[in-house]
Design brief:
Keywords: Pyridoxal phosphate
Distance between the termini: 47 Å
CATH architecture of the largest domain: 3-Layer(aba) Sandwich
Number of helices: 15
Oligomer: single chain
Bound molecules: pyridoxal-5'-phosphate
Pfam family, one: Aminotran_5
InterPro entries: Aminotrans_V_dom (IPR000192), PyrdxlP-dep_Trfase (IPR015424), PyrdxlP-dep_Trfase_major (IPR015421)
Order of helices and strands: EEHEHHHEHEHEHEHEHEEHHHHEHEEEH
Largest sheet: 7 strands, mixed
Strand content: 5-15%
Shape: globular
Radius of gyration: 23 Å
Organism: Cicer arietinum (Chickpea)
Protein name: Probable L-cysteine desulfhydrase, chloroplastic
Amino acid sequence: MASNNNHRSIPDLNGTSHSHPTPKKPKLSSSSFITPSEIQSEFSHHDTAVARINNGSFGSCPSSIISAQHNWQLKYLRQPDHFYFNHLKPAILHSRSIIKNLVNANHIDEISIVDNATTAASIVLQHTAWCFREGTFQKDDVVIMLHYAYGSVKKSMEAYVTRAGGRVIEVPLPFPVSSNDEIITEFRKALEKGKSEGKKVRLAVIDHVTSMPCVVIPVKELIQICREEGVEKVFVDAAHAIGCTDVDMQEIGADFYTSNLHKWFFCPPSIAFLYNRKNPKNDAGGSGDLHHPVVSHEYGNGLAVESAWIGTRDYSAQLVVPNVLEFVNRFEGGIEGIKKRNHEAVVEMGDMLVKAWGTHLGSPSNMCASMVMVGLPTSLGVKSDSDALKLRTHLRDVFGVEVPIYYRPPRDGEVEPVTGYARISHQVYNKVEDYYKFRDAVNQLVDNGFACTLLSN
Ligand SMILES: Cc1ncc(COP(=O)(O)O)c(C=O)c1O
């Protein structure tokens, strides 16, 4: 993470930096940290009937941030022209400068704010499509992605890469997984395959934290391999990363990197950043020609400026980043402390569940962040994706437990493999009782002789 200097550079509207004293992180004595009852009150809008152990899917937003967002919305509605001409651009710029410091980017121009990781992936892959169409890339040149890439990103590959003449190679990943080496080996094999027909590997799309099943990918090591093997560009889909795992642009070394702030950074839906490494020269697969897919009159003024105005809409989620920073700094250790405690708690809860059910975790604790895959008892009979969805719905409707379920097909020769895994999350509002509720629900299903075949479609 970026260190706190005494001064920060705040760019004006033209991007020129001016030095301002850095507001000191409030030095809270242990008694002034946010209290458990204040945390409860910040999330009192959550449905108390539900054990929400799925922060990963949609994140969460405290009520103080919802009020801050509402203030921005009122500011706009009170006098839209004044808001547009005097507030919007500087406020977005301020959010960008906070994100730049949080992720240790080199320059504010490297950070654009977009709606979500889905939009960021479209921006990067649309650029790849142009490279094919305009002849910078040749037919059948290769783009690599992980087999566990997020569904919408896979569709984007179809829409922007395959249709434009590119060849997509998927890296199969083992699950359950026991070491980074297993992932690195598969990645190397896929690169070899990509290069074996004399084709160029133009882009690698690598998740930082895969969605389903969830595993923290050794991105830094994979990017290093990409550099050694001549892969032109690397895009990291880190939809879950900020607030969940370490995010440092200098350390990771990607060309493009996106993370949502509405998942693990307490922003309201929806906001993500897209990092686009500043490149002195506009090379072939260059990063200087990215554009927002929604074209406005800002087209051609740089991705960050294009993204800051994609027509009339509600921009308030992008404007509360300073408030969120204040919110996380009420916790001991700020966002780093939150991340660390979430990790420790989710691993502890995962261990408690697998002990109760006689199963195992999907990865060792060093390969998970604030989410972990927990093996379900085999007697539940999760035998397809449809079973997994039905079981998830059943847990919600009958037991008030919200948790995504993953179906993992058995491999040849496996005897009684675990085929159902739950992805549990831990966020600051979670309590041990949420996980006990889940444990007891599953125990009750097992005791009652439940199997997914009993659920109708
Ligand atoms: C790895 C990954 N990529 C992309 C996304 C899409 O995020 P969003 O719906 O906010 O665009 C997700 C959502 O969970 C994800 O897990």
